[in-house]
Design brief:
442 residues, alpha/beta, seven-stranded mixed sheet, 11 strands
């Protein structure tokens, strides 16, 4: 694990253990299982299942590759044993290979030389020992009926009505945090939640159609290579905001567009000069490229509002092409960025319907012309950097609103929730998304 992950797992595992003890002391009943939403390679679950915690973990993960890696790590950590599912292998060939390596017959009898990928992880249920149960599935809501139906092993010793689970997660992306928090309301067996969210840009929106940029900047909300308009009109009841208070505040509720949610993912207090310089440079390159697209006819200008006869940023905008990320080498210069973007737009199948337009409009652009654009707009980079800095410093405000909304949602279910709060669990310098939302059921 990287230093950041070690910090998160170590601190959160200890926090969950203390929280479970306090909640059990207050209710008089201990938790039987801990459900990890979006477990990934299960670093948190593996830590909690190991001594001194020895918890029973239900790891819910949508990607089978992550789950396979997690099982390999379980074997390495000693939580699981490696067993050959087929039990068919050439023992003589293995012995010959071992002897070539200088391994004695006695040692051959005690070791297994097969690749780990040929083995399966088995988890023995022992008293005072934690277990891990993996459940493959992509959660689309907070109802855990399907998840619970897949449980085996340790769960067979506990009656369904006796299950007392805590939903936990480190940095569950987007709506996954909402599912984890709502799970305590919708599932009788979920008795507590402790969720640290992240990736606020992936949250869907409940109060209106999805936004891609501030509506004032682009009133159509529709880039030329975005999702179809019919899907853009969707309002997701699982999205932000969760609470009735925020949903109805001021009559229409509070919405956060995509730019605000992306800003909530920033940690400007941790920025170094090098990191902030790279951040501003990327946005400068993107802005200049969109100007090239406009001048070359790849995109067109959109007029809105009252016609004043004078074109300005207040009555016109564009429908930009959303390119996404490029290879690291593409950010070394504007020329490299433009060339990388053109290559992606003309070769990537996701942009196939626009590749011909890009080839026709930009196929003959020269490095000298790109350099002239960079020189012409170089002085505007300082303005762009200032605006993005001001936006980035709103990160704490936006994140606080999102977390407060989740806390309010729990508060609004006072008939079910005995107590709820928000507190920090990580050092901001190590992991800036450090706010955990906790709820304890009555």
């Amino acid at each position: 694990m990287k230093t950041k992950k070690v910090h998160e797992v170590t601190h959160f595992a200890g926090y969950i253990d203390r929280l479970a003890e306090d909640a059990a002391r207050a209710s008089g009943a201990e938790f039987t299982h801990f459900v990890d939403f979006g477990s990934g390679q299960n670093y948190l679950g593996r830590t909690l299942a190991s001594p001194p915690y020895s918890k029973h973990i239900v790891a819910v993960e949508s990607k089978e590759a992550n789950m396979a890696s997690a099982r390999d790590l379980d074997i390495l950590s000693g939580l699981a044993e490696a067993v050959d599912p087929s039990l068919h292998h050439d023992e003589e060939a293995l012995k010959r290979a071992a002897k070539e390596l200088g391994i004695s017959d006695e040692d051959i009898a005690t070791i297994d030389l097969r690749p780990r990928k040929e083995l399966q992880a088995t988890y023995a249920v022992e008293k005072e020992k934690g277990t891990i149960e993996y459940v493959v599935g992509r959660l689309e809501h907070a109802d855990l009926t399907d998840v619970l139906s897949q449980l085996r092993g340790q769960e067979n010793e506990v009656r369904q009505e006796d299950l007392r689970m805590m939903a936990i997660s480190i940095h569950s992306c987007g709506n996954l945090s909402h599912y984890g928090i709502r799970s305590m309301i919708l599932n009788p067996c979920i008795r507590a939640v402790a969720i640290v969210g992240c990736c606020y840009n992936l949250l869907t929106e409940k109060l209106g159609p999805p936004t891609y940029k501030p509506p004032f900047s682009r009133p159509t909300l529709q880039p030329i290579n975005a999702r179809v308009a019919r899907e853009s009109e969707r309002r997701d009841p699982q999205g932000f905001p969760m609470s009735e208070r925020v949903s109805t505040y001021g009559g229409d509720g509070i919405r956060l567009n995509i730019t605000a949610r992306m800003m909530a993912c920033q940690a400007p207090q941790n920025w170094t000069e090098e990191e902030s310089g790279a951040f501003f440079t990327r946005h400068f390159y993107r802005a200049v490229l969109q100007k090239i697209f406009l001048d070359r006819g790849v995109i067109s200008r959109v007029y809105h509002g009252e016609e004043t006869g004078e074109e300005s940023p207040f009555n016109s905008s564009t429908n930009p092409v959303i390119i996404g990320s490029l290879r690291k080498q593409c950010y070394t210069s504007l020329t490299a960025y433009v060339r990388g973007a053109i290559a992606k737009l003309t070769t990537n199948s996701d942009f196939s319907q626009y590749s011909q337009t890009i080839k026709e409009k930009l196929g003959d652009i020269t490095d000298e012309e790109i350099a002239r654009y960079e020189e012409a707009f170089r002085h505007r980079k300082r303005e762009l950097s200032a605006v993005w800095s001001l936006m980035a410093f709103s990160a704490c405000v936006v994140e606080s609103l999102i977390v407060t909304d989740r806390w309010l949602f729990l508060r609004e279910h006072a008939d079910i929730v005995r107590d709820c709060w928000v507190e920090t669990v990580f050092d901001y310098r190590e992991s800036p998304r450090n706010l955990v939302v906790v709820g304890i059921k009555k």
